[in-house]
Task: structure prediction
Amino acid sequence: PQIRWPDEVQTPQARLYPAVQRICLDVVGAAAVVPWRSGFLLLLPAAPDNLARDLDVAADLLDRVHTAAGQVGPGARVHLAISSPVRTARELAHGMHEADQAVELARRLGIADRPLAFEHLGVYRILLDGGGSQHRRDFVEDVLGPLARYDAERGTQLVPTLRAYVQADYN
Result:
């Protein structure tokens, strides 16, 4: 019988796991790292209502994990996605679903150089989720909300003008 060393029989995910834990602790100070599907689920403290800060932290994590993954298995592809903030255990499943959708989009589009935030997916949120009503409302608010508020504050007619433009086949 041939004896195999532990690193020969472990999957790349299993060999990368300790490095991901260490990286998360170094970058954010606290984290829960759980093997999930073909990667990891990272539960990290978020900056309250500061997605830009979360994206900066995620970019740092992605760079470090990408380097570690290259040492474990050259050519490894690493993607990182951020869900909407999860404030309660009840919201965790929804957050995992959002992160899964963002990772899937990153894989399909070949985006590995930056983290993707679910909130920044725009119309892809609707396309990936089959157009769930909450995602449609969120998308409309994200896109048209600032325009509607501008109209309300200044008495302008930007939303009706945009509606007329779309109804005229963008002409």
Summary: The radius of gyration is 21 Å. The longest strand covers residues 32-36. DSSP finds seven helices and four strands in the chain.
